[in-house]
Design a protein that fits this description.
about 160 residues, alpha/beta, about 30% strand, single chain
């Protein structure tokens, strides 16, 4: 299995890239924050491994884990997987942050005010197993960090947990 990562410059969030092998389809997990976004860095990595991204998985609805999902899915059309409890945060990240507080000031200074969800979003079910890019992925709900936090197991070999 190929496992690689991009560390986002803001909040040092790990963005994981997983595939069965080089030159195959892959999944991307938690495309985080960069200015203007993390797309170029992710595209460079998948090109280095000759991968074809086919899905984005989001571990939870905090901005540092999904900030680059919309521009990434515009650049490379693919599905985005997130829990129903956190889906609204894709278009309303302030729903998980203090309105009018430091977070809102940070986003304003960052130049980010308008958010939209990607065009193809799939809501995850608890303990569902599905196949993407030749990988067997199981979503396990782990609410607490956000109401819709989820962990993923990949081929019963890797566990991805977000924060």
């Amino acid at each position: 299995m190929l496992v690689d990562r991009v560390v986002a410059p803001y909040f040092e969030t790990n963005c994981w890239v997983l595939a069965t092998q080089p030159a195959s389809e892959c999944i991307i997990v938690d495309p985080g924050m960069a200015r203007p976004n993390l797309v170029r860095t992710i595209v460079d990595m998948v090109n280095e491994h000759k991968l074809k991204p086919v899905a984005v998985l989001i571990t939870h609805g905090h901005l540092d884990h999904f900030f680059s999902v919309l521009p990434l899915t515009i650049e490379i059309p693919m599905r985005t997987y997130i829990t129903g409890a956190d889906r609204f945060l894709l278009s309303n990240p302030m729903g998980a942050l203090d309105s009018g507080g430091v977070s809102e000031q940070f986003l304003s200074a960052f130049g980010s005010k308008n958010f939209k969800e990607p065009s193809d979003v799939i809501e995850l079910d608890d303990f569902s197993t599905f196949q993407i890019a030749g990988l067997s992925i199981t979503s396990i709900f782990a609410p607490g960090h956000t109401k819709g936090s989820v962990i993923f197991t990949i081929d019963n070999q890797q566990l991805i947990s977000g924060d």
